[in-house]
Write a structure and sequence with these properties.
It is a single chain. The chain is an all-alpha fold and 239 residues long. It contains 12 helices and no strands. Helix 3 packs antiparallel against helix 9 and helix 6 packs across helix 12. The longest helix is centred in the middle third of the chain and has 27 residues.
């Protein structure tokens, strides 16, 4: 899946602008920060714990709803309106279209995460903060978001209905999120494999501040595989 950076950038900028030219970006960011902020302040003031642990635990769950909402329109809307055919009449490959849309949605999630640094600043005034887990937590969240965005784009490529795309995206990412939480019901010989496939298992490893190449390989493999499936799905119109 090769792509030309010069062709990807206009799509990336167009999609990112479209988020902020509508209410999508603002609603997503406000809702995301409201939910995360509520849990953060509850943990900080009610339990009197100066830690970002609760924030890093709640954000992956919030991603399950927020990211499918961000990605549901990326291809389904283009297919329904017929503009996907206009895109492909230009000197653009399917991989370049997917890459541009992916980077725009991933960037929006990254922008939504930036205000959460205020929580880190607040905590740093209240006590000493172990920066290793904080850095690892943000790296892990960005990688998880990348995988979820790629899966959401694949879901959006399967239908021309945004609601269906949202439901499919949620089901796919929820299944991936829950894999390492059903180990108790699995035989021992299968549990380790299923645990490794679960995305939350790899996020928890990185969130401890330990960057393991196996976790990085997992995230990028899942991301690229999902994007590859999106390209194949988009190419179905030519079959």
């Amino acid at each position: 899946m090769t792509s030309n950076f010069k062709n990807v950038m206009p799509i990336f900028l167009k999609e990112l602008r479209s988020y902020f030219n509508s209410a999508v970006a603002y609603v997503v960011i406000v809702v995301f920060l409201a939910i995360v902020g509520w849990f953060f302040t509850s943990d900080l003031f009610l339990m009197n714990i100066a830690s970002l642990r609760m924030m890093f635990e709640i954000i992956p769950a919030v991603f399950l709803f927020v990211i499918p909402a961000i990605t549901m329109r990326l291809l389904s809307e283009e297919k329904k309106s017929g503009t996907i055919e206009l895109l492909t009449t230009k000197p653009l490959t399917d991989a370049e279209i997917i890459a541009g849309k992916f980077l725009a949605a991933w960037a929006l999630v990254g922008i939504a995460l930036i205000p959460t640094l205020l929580y880190y600043i607040t905590i740093s005034f209240l006590g000493n903060v172990d920066n290793g887990p904080v850095i690892g937590g943000y790296v892990g969240l960005l990688l998880m978001a990348g995988v979820y965005v790629a899966i959401g784009i694949f879901a959006s490529s399967l239908t021309d209905n945004q609601v269906v795309a949202f439901i499919l995206g949620f089901v796919f990412v929820f299944a991936l999120y829950m894999l390492d939480k059903i180990l108790y019901y699995l035989p021992g010989w299968l549990a380790s494999t299923v645990e490794f496939l679960g995305i939350d298992y790899h996020l928890s490893n990185i969130s401890r501040g330990i960057i393991d190449t196996r976790d990085i390989i997992y995230f990028f493999s899942a991301l690229l595989f999902s994007l590859y499936l999106s390209v194949l799905s988009l190419q179905r119109r030519n079959w």
